[in-house]
Amino acid sequence: MQSKRTFSTLILLLLVCITQAQFPPGEITWSAFDDNHESGNSKVLSLSVTDSVEWVYQLNPGHSWPFAGLTMGIDLTQSNSQDNCCNESDTLIIYMRSNQPGRVVLQLATFDPEITVEDDPVSSRTLEAPVTVFPEKTRVAVPLEDFKVAKWWRTRYGIAPTDKRLFLDSINVVNWVFGNTPRIGHTDTLVVYGVSFVSGNEKKRSSLMYLLFIVPLFFIPVLIKLLTYKRKEDRNEGVSKVINLKPEPLEVQPGDWDRFLQFMNKNYSSNELNLSNVASSLGISESRLSKLIKENYHEGFRSMIHTLRIDEAKRLLSHTKLNVAEIAYKLGYATPSHFNREFKLRIGVTPTAFRAENSTLLSGSTL
Questions:
Q1: In the predicted model, what is the mean pLDDT of residues 278-303?
Q2: How many angstroms separate the Cα of 136 from the Cα of each of 95, 140, 177, 236, 241?
Q3: How far apart are CA 89 and CA 158, in angstroms?
């Protein structure tokens, strides 16, 4: 009986030594981004999540530094264990491949209590580490201590070079950022098979293995079998070590300019529409919004409002029996005369004349 207990104890020790620690995944989201919101021409072509993540993108000239990226949002705070928070002794492991071999910058976003604000993802402290991807499925392991605070993020927030804090216990995002020149003009596919954060406690556990070599020879076959299984897992599958790549929720996030256009198309008739209110609704600064409009719509913010309103006015004049005054108020104009003036300025005729020439209403039809 004592022999059986001893055997069971040794087996448990062996399992402890070879089992790789993994942080609980918590809530995971996948999304993609490109340089379109900064007037670039790169494109996110598709993003799908099954038992792996497949992201297709294209880097195109047009931006001073064309870029596109894949984002994995992860809430490690969902873990019930306080021992699973990240620190510099831990390692990020990714199984992935890319049609176009070369450099990719891995980014981690962490919460900086002095700078990060909830509605501004860029304010999260950004850490970077360059790695290389290959056309073949490859295991990439990056010690978290190798990540450095991004230079552009230091400049943006005036962070001193001596401030090397990483705040690894609050990781919430992993990014894959592609922007190197050889990929420009090419369509590429990145496939991510698995992601895990491996605990640094593994190093401590591995030291216990030396103690096991003093056990009787009849335990050696068990030891060899278990160690061989671990090496095979490291080399090929890694399935038991990866975060679950569940397909929901999945979204390709629009850039700031696309979000602005969507907002304007829904709210152009509001009589309280102004640059400050729109910027606040979109969660960006007014200066940022002004720059976007200047780069993408040279006629300006007020002109865009009138253009959207007049386009809708043309539809209402052609397909409804609403009178001119009703249409003016419906579209957000304070007075019919203001509406008439803006309409004639853009269309060349008055609303009444436009209706006479373009109305498709049948006799007796209503709104």
A1: 88
A2: 10, 12, 19, 12, 19
A3: 28
The span from the CA of 94 to the CA of 97, in Å, is 10
Between the CA of residue 313 and those of 207, 250, 307, 336, 365, what are the distances in Å?
Answer: 77, 37, 10, 12, 18
Q: Looking up tokens 């705040």, which residue turns up?
A: 167
Strand 187-198's sheet: what is its strand order? 43-49, 53-58, 187-198, 91-98, 138-143
Name residue, tokens 């994995």.
72
What does the alpha-carbon distance between residue 317 and residue 347 come to, in Å, rounded to a whole number? 13
Exposure b/e, 307-330, CB count within 10 A at least 16 = b:
bbbbebbbebbeebebebeebbeb
Whether the bond between 249 and the residue before it is cis, its omega within 30 degrees of 0, is yes
Q: pLDDT for 241-277, tens place per residue? A: 334 444 333 444 557 888 888 899 999 999 888 999 8
Residue-level length of the chain: 367
Q: Can you read off the two tokens belonging to residue 308?
A: 């959207």
> With contact defined as beta carbons under 8 Å apart, do 253 and 110 qualify?
no
Question: What distance in Å separates the CA atoms of residue 278 and residue 283, rounded to the nearest whole number?
Answer: 9
- Strand order of the β-sheet with 102-110 is 28-34, 68-74, 173-178, 102-110, 125-133, 148-149
Rounded CA gap, 171 and 73, in Å? 9
Stretch 318-326: mean pLDDT: 92
Q: Rounded to whole angstroms, what are the CA distances from 154 to 121, 128, 158, 249, 284?
A: 15, 12, 6, 32, 20
The residue type of 117 is V
Q: Is residue 197 within 8 Å of residue 22, measured between CB atoms?
A: yes
Q: How confident is the model at residue 224 (pLDDT cuts 50, 70, 90)?
A: low
The one-character DSSP state at 219 is: G
Helix, strand, coil shares of the chain as percentages rounded to 5?
Answer: 40, 25, 35
Q: 60: Cβ–Cβ under 8 A, 6 or more apart, which residues?
A: 40, 41, 42, 43, 66, 184, 185
pTM: 0.52
